[in-house]
Amino acid sequence: MSIYAYELETIRGERASMEQYKGKVLVVVNTASKCGFTPQYADLQKLYEQYKDQGLEILGFPSNQFGEQEPGANSDVQSFCQLNYGVTFPLFAKTDVRDDTAHPLFRHLTEEAPFQGFDTSEPSGKMLDAFLKEKLPHYLFGNSIKWNFTKFLVDREGRIVKRFESTVEPLAMKDEIEKLL
């Protein structure tokens, strides 16, 4: 199935389709407002501002599946993102991104871009890996999303090019994004 076949719900409760992003380079990311990685919103917004006129779209999908770090209503999430990080890229309704209730879009993304492990040579990768091994070891099995702010880079034809785990800072994706623009 093509990435463009999926139906979505915007953060305002409107129906949307991935079809509207055909021909764009996409960063699809699951997000949360009360996570150690939440400051990544700032750099995601920087990337969006820098490259949106060249065809980049960043699509944010809040999820409450990781430590209940996105407890608020969609309107709360939207306000938080705008007030604290000036987010203007598209946000979608709170979405399940792992396990049996995962939205089909995220099942597709994780099938096409399997989990390759964390970079444990970096402190944040080492810390998240250790945390999951101790507290949620079952999260490390399979290709599902492991934590908030997992990012998927999609080319203009809708092919998933690369998966960036939570510990990868958004600005570290710049070179890969520029290749696709």
TrEMBL record:
Q: Does the keyword Disulfide bond apply?
A: no
Which InterPro entries does this chain map to? Glutathione_peroxidase, GPX_AS, GPX_CS, Thioredoxin-like_sf
Top-level taxon of the source organism: Bacteria
Active site annotation, chain numbering: C35
Give UniProt keywords alphabetically: Oxidoreductase, Peroxidase
Concerning CDD domains, the annotation shows: GSH_Peroxidase
Q: Does the keyword Zinc-finger apply?
A: no
Q: Name one GO biological process term.
A: cellular response to oxidative stress
Q: Name one GO molecular function term.
A: peroxidase activity
Which family is this sequence assigned to? Belongs to the glutathione peroxidase family.
**PANTHER family reported in the protein's UniProt record:** GLUTATHIONE PEROXIDASE
**The name this protein goes by in its record:** Glutathione peroxidase
Organism equals Paenibacillus arenilitoris
